[in-house]
Design a protein that fits this description.
mainly alpha, globular
Length: 109
């Protein structure tokens, strides 16, 4: 499941580069499908999330990803996984704030 999530994340990134801004929904849907399952590849899931955050510069996508991460945190029973998800949520929030400030700075120029 984790490796498949990495592939879907990469595919979504490529499709979004080509202008399909809804491609991220496939990634988020698959990510959400792990919520109620015992997933053994949690490090791969965290890697896929982090890679997606790094490559994403579109604020609405990052906000939706943050919401999905928060749902996964609420459903998680593993301390290590919850901690990793919380780090992803924090990284997502910081990136949203940084991008928002950048947009405000660009408008001020």
């Amino acid at each position: 499941m984790g490796k498949h999530l990495i592939y879907v994340s990469t595919q979504a990134e490529i499709e979004m580069e080509m202008g399909d801004m809804e491609a991220y929904m496939k990634f988020l849907s698959l990510l959400l499908s792990t919520k109620d399952k015992q997933v053994h590849s949690k490090p791969n899931i965290l890697l896929a999330i982090n890679n997606f955050i790094k490559s994403m510069d579109y604020i609405p996508c990052l906000e939706k990803l943050h919401d999905v991460i928060m749902e996964l945190i609420e459903a998680s029973t593993s301390y290590g996984y919850t901690k990793g998800l919380a780090e992803c949520a924090g990284y997502t929030s910081m990136k949203i704030k940084r991008l928002s400030r950048g947009l405000c700075n660009e408008k001020a120029k």
